[in-house]
Amino acid sequence: MAGEPNAAGGEPLIALRGVSRHYEIGGGTVKALDQVDLEVRPGEFVVILGASGSGKTTLLNVIGALDLPTAGTIRIGGRDVTGATRRELFALRRHEIGFIFQSFNLFPGLTALENVEFGADVAGRADARDAAGEVLAQVGLGERGDHFPHELSGGEQQRVAIARALAAGNPIVLADEPTGELDFETGVQILELLHGVTHTSGTAVLVVTHNREIARVADRVVELSSGTVVSDRANEPAALADLRW
Amino acid sequence: MNGGLRFWLAWSWRDLRGRWQLVLAIGLLLAGGVGLAAGLASMRDWRVASNDESFAQLGVHDLRVEAEQGSYAPTGSLAQAARRIPDADMIAAAGERLIAPTQIDASEAAGHTVITPGQVIGVETGAGREVSGVTVTGPPVDSVAVTEGDGLPTRSGAVAGILDPQYAKENGIAPPAQITVAGGERIDVVGLGNSPETFVVIGPGGSFSSEADYGTVFLPLAAAQRVAGLPGKVNDLAIELAPGADAGRVATELRDQIERDLPGFGLEVTDTSDIDGRRILYDDADNDQQLFDVFAFLILAGAAFGAFNLISRTIESQRREIGIGMALGVEPRRLAIRPLLMGLQIAVAGVVLGVLVGLGVNAWLRGLLADQLPLPFLDTDVRWDRFATRAAIGFAIPLLAAAWPVWRGLRIRPIEAIEAGFRSARGGGLAPLLAKLPTPGRSLAQMPARNVLRAPRRTLLTVLASAAVISVAVSMSGMLDSFRATVDANAAEQGRMAPDRLEVTLAGFVPADAPALRRLADSPLAAATDSRLSVPATLRSANDEIDVVVDTIPGRDPVWTPRATAGSLPEGPGEVLIAESAAEDLGVGVGDRITLIHPVRAGPDRFETGEDEVVVSGTHADPFRFPVYMSGSGAAAFGLEGRVNAIDVLPPAGVGENTVKRALLTHPGVATIESASTLGDALEEGLDEFGAIIRVVVGIAVVLVLLIAFNSTAINADERAREYATMFAYGLPVRTVVRLAIVESLLIGLLATAVGLLLGVLILGWVINVSIEEVLPELGVIGSLSLGTVALAALAGVGAMAAAPLLTIRRLRKMDVSSTLRVVE
């Protein structure tokens, strides 16, 4: 099922055509993704929803150039990356994509500000330190820049991780279960933050989750099952205050 | 319980199959330490047993009557005096000898120019006997062990003898051969062999000499007397005491009897402990073993730190599994089985491989000893008791290393152990300290230093492990540097005015205006000459008593004079210039008074012992302790006014040293001719032999550092997998990530190198000031660390550490980034 453009306009930032990812395991073939078509435009907040084993993380991986499809084409920022070299994929991640992980994956030896600066650094921003300070302030941690990850709460750590992804200034942010390790209230704050980012900076945000409640805040919900897109629909974002999980 | 144990054993076996490479790597690290420690531990036992066997089989003397230089007694008179003492029954055997310095020309036998000083030892001959494949010949006391060729000819007066095997080997001489000695006498070399006093080459005046540059020839007594130009004369009596004899009483009675029989005959009665070579062999065995023990301990400590670190880290990675087990109610002692079994596996691997390494080290050292230990009888059986103790230590280390993290793991609450994700994240260690410092560079540049400080205990263990091993390389290599610096200092002092200077020793004290000396001075092969006195003596202070050689300083236009580095050259008869190291040992300075004990000429062939108070006018920089200088007027103190026994000869420009030596050898009265740099050359040669051991130990040390670095980096790569995956996800290429790991390793390597250098310098100081000082007190070794040694330490520490991350490139390239990022632990 082809994804339809949502409220956000313009050329698609992400365009998948007939993307499959099959694995040969124990003499059989596992179809993690099968013939997936998807387009995501700037400023979209897309939730990829699915149960465990539905292929949502694999989809995030191929979009994030961490994995390559066994069939189909992927265009990121208008460029076909399906046959890209390893070096080109690394460069793509540096300049087009920012990642947010379930377990945050902050660097424990760096302060909050330095973790954010890392994102700006690798993207090649000359003003990395200033940009990091700015983004950290945006996520409400301007006063916590000198703290190390272990000195921050889970929510604060995830906000630093979001700031790190945003500081790169890349047009795509991929978030894998970003609220998975957080309590409800903190999770809502994180979603609020991501939602705000989408609409203020025009960044396309893809959030992978199995939590239907989270999907309620998205502009668009793509549902996967057994590696195929079973629904791709626009969504009227619910008020964050209405969320429950 | 049995079923339960089987379960844990089966699980542990699966663990082993999964990480056998790590177990093997840590086992190898331990094996290096255990093997080197076990292998080196046998050295003292071997050397002492070989010394005991060699000295016993050759009937080393219990007492020895040594005539003062220039004193001789008629053949038979010393033996007769021994038979006439009141307690003659305390003497089991006695043999007279004539020991005379000479010059040896062995060029014909060697096939290349070999003209060196040496000595002729005339001994009584007797029937030989076979002991363990070695023919023991000559007198019953201080016999000669013939290791090749024939024994001493029993036909009295035959000019056929036995040559020192070390001299022969170094110069490529094999019997039968012919050599020429001072005076032009030719000697048939029928065999190779040595006696207890010549196991270690001791040159004239008690100085050591190189094996290639000082030869000993054993001849029948009559032949030796003829060759030395001393017919019917002897100057030495070797005595074997009967069991239970009172050595002190016999020595006193001997002195009294000889004084009665040969009035004015200057002599000294010494015992076995005065044999310099024997003292060096035993002291060397003890001191070398101390040194080896220190090195082995450090290597073992390095391996222990490394193993402890790596095992702790590996077992800590099982923290969650232990926590889950605790949550499921498994008894702690059962939970401890699996990680402890890992320690056991490493212990077994370390000990089994360690014993193999030890046997290899043993085999290598056995060959080295057989080649370099100058003893006819060797006992180098494997010392299993030494192996057992080192193996026990090697076995205990991994078990202890495993016990500590297991104990820690079992003490925490299960909930803490099973926490995943950010809640399980550890603190930043000491990294926050660095964050407070204004350090240059962006976030990426900050990472390596922060990572070093993030886990200070681990960093410390890695640093200590590497530093311990590096310190071995530094101190051993530093010993070579120090000996080289000492040789250079000697060469700088002795070769200062005339580097080609030859020192000619005369057979006796001759008038300074003797025609023979004039002929020598007028020789076209002598551009300049200086004659002087050279007399063995003793300096005594309240602190110490040391053996020295006193040389008088020539007057006008000398070929060479010493240089005072403090004070001034001696001017009056009661002044001496002594070595800086002698002044230090004696505890005196410029202007202080010391006692000079020296021979005083009492008549032709007769010397007595005299004592004088002298003033230290200054000190010189020669690293050898024994050179002492007096002004020419000092000769009066020895009763030798107007007489000389040594000449400095400066060869004409363009004339080679050997040409001059060969020409001077034919001059009557010339005993020995040697280059002024002979002592330095002897040290240099000794260095080459010692260097073999040093190079192997240094090589093992470097390999161990590599192992420590690689193991540490490999485990780091596992532990940091999620951080690396995050970097890859953000598009950092593998090379950048590896570069960060290299910089981190480099910093640890720098720390390890700095600590290793510091520790190495401390050990070197101990070796020089304590160990070598005991064995070679006459040598003031100058502590030195060359750039090469520092570079070696840097190569071992910084280089190996920095290179280790390169070995993880393949693993990083093959990393499943996506899966790694989702690992919750």
Write up what this structure looks like:
- The complex is a heterodimer of chains A (245) and B (825).
- Chain A is built from seven helices and ten strands.
- Chain A is of the alpha/beta class and 245 residues long.
- Chain A has a single domain (14-242), classed as Rossmann fold (3-Layer(aba) Sandwich), CATH 3.40.50.300.
- In chain A, the strands form two sheets. Chain A has a six-stranded mixed sheet, sandwiched between helices.
- Chain B is an alpha+beta fold and 825 residues long.
- Chain B folds into four domains: 1-53 and 282-419, no CATH class; 61-274, no CATH class; 429-488 and 678-825, no CATH class; 489-677, no CATH class.
- Helices cover 51% and strands 20% of the residues of chain B.
- In chain B, strands 17, 18, 19, 20, 21, 22 and 23 form a seven-stranded mixed sheet that branches. A six-stranded mixed barrel of chain B has the order 3-4-11-8-10-9, surrounded by four helices. In chain B, strands 16-24-15-25 form a four-stranded antiparallel sheet, with helices on one face.
- In chain B, strand 21 (593-603) and strand 22 form a beta hairpin.
- The model of chain B has no long low-confidence stretch (mean pLDDT 84).
- Chain A binds chain B through residues 57, 61, 64, 66-67, 87, 90-95, 97-99, 101-111, 114-115, 117-119, 121-123, 128-129, 146, 148-150, 154, 157, 168, 176, 181, and chain B through 420-423, 425-428, 431-432, 435, 442-444, 446-447, 450-451, 453-454, 722-723, 725-733, 817-818, 821-822, 824.
Ordered list of secondary-structure elements with their pairings:
The complex is a heterodimer of chains A (245) and B (825).
Chain A: E1 14-25, E2 28-40, E3 45-50, H1 56-63, E4 71-76, E5 79-80, H2 86-96, E6 97-100, H3 112-122, H4 128-138, H5 154-167, E7 172-176, H6 184-201, E8 204-209, H7 212-215, E9 220-225, E10 228-234
Parallel strand pairs in A: 3-8, 3-9, 6-7, 7-8
Antiparallel strand pairs in A: 1-2, 1-4, 4-5, 9-10
Helix pairs in contact in A: 3-4, 3-5, 4-5, 5-6
Chain B: H1 2-18, H2 20-41, H3 43-57, E1 63-67, E2 73-74, H4 77-83, E3 91-105, H5 107-110, E4 115-123, E5 129-131, E6 134-137, E7 144-149, E8 160-163, H6 165-171, E9 177-181, E10 185-194, E11 215-220, H7 221-227, E12 233-234, E13 236-241, H8 247-261, E14 267-271, H9 276-316, H10 319-327, H11 332-372, H12 384-411, H13 414-418, H14 431-435, H15 443-454, H16 456-494, E15 502-511, H17 515-522, E16 528-532, E17 534-540, E18 545-553, E19 566-567, E20 575-579, H18 580-586, E21 593-603, E22 606-620, E23 627-631, E24 643-650, H19 657-665, E25 670-675, H20 678-719, H21 721-729, H22 734-775, H23 787-803, H24 809-813, H25 817-822
